[in-house]
Structure formats: C-alpha cells, structure tokens
Amino acid sequence: TPLPSGDDQRDLTRHNIAVDMRVEIVDPSGEVIESEHTVTENISVRGATLFTTLEIPLGRFVRLTSEQYRITVHAAIRERTTGADGVPRIHVEFIDKEWPL
C-alpha cells in the first residue's frame, strides 16, 4: 500500500495549541534586533508554526520565550508561508532543546 502524500507528514505529532511566545531576532553578540509577541498555530516537541509580521529569512536563528511554559529555546527558520487567512507564518525547528509538551 502506498503511503499518503502531502507536506504534513511528520514523525512527531503537532498539537494545534496557541502558545503565547516572544520571538526575538538577535545579532551575533546576542543583542535583540527585533522582537514580537505572537502565538503558535501548532507545536511539537521539535518545532512550531508561529504567526508573525517579522521579515525573518530562511535559515536565520531566533530566540523564542514562553512565560506560560517558563522556557526559552533557540530555533531555526525552516519555512515561511502565508495562510489562506492572509497571515504570514514562520515554521521553526527547535535546535537546542525539546519543547515540554
């Protein structure tokens, strides 16, 4: 039997949870260049999709902080998309730790 095709094949479950987060773009010295408060569209232990108005290029690293979960993680921008609702999103991969779901 063939496997179903599609872009949403992941080995980890994505949970459709709105987690409040602060996205920070930091320079090489660790100074915050830009930041934004936003929420996730979905999240897994290794990545998330977040709504954003920030123009963050693919491959760039960001720092994500959630007061709700009391955690800060570093993530890489793996994709940028715009939903049917017209709202831009970034798809990130957590690179220094897993998200505590």
Put the structure in a nutshell.
Helices cover 0% and strands 49% of the residues. The chain has 101 residues and is an all-beta fold.
Mind explaining what this structure looks like?
The protein has about 100 residues and is an all-beta fold. Helix content is about 0%, strand content about 50%. It has no helices and 6 strands. It has a 6-stranded antiparallel barrel. β4 and β5 (about 70-80) form a beta hairpin.
Question: Total number of helical segments?
Answer: 0
**Cα distance, first to last residue?**
33 Å
Largest sheet: 6 strands, antiparallel, barrel
Alpha carbon gyration radius: 14 Å
Helix percent band: under 10%
Average of per-residue pLDDT values: 90
- Please report the total strand number as a whole number: 6
Walk across the major sheet and give the strand order.
1-2-3-6-5-4
**Residue windows where pLDDT falls under 50 for at least 5 positions:** 1-8
User: H/E element string?
Assistant: EEEEEE
Beta-strand content estimate: over 45%
Shape: globular
Structural class: mainly beta
Helix/strand layout:
Blueprint: E1 20-26, E2 32-43, E3 47-51, E4 61-66, E5 71-82, E6 88-94
Antiparallel strand pairs: 1-2, 1-4, 2-3, 3-6, 4-5, 5-6
Keywords for this entry:
6-stranded antiparallel barrel; mainly beta; 101 residues; disordered N terminus; single chain; 6 strands
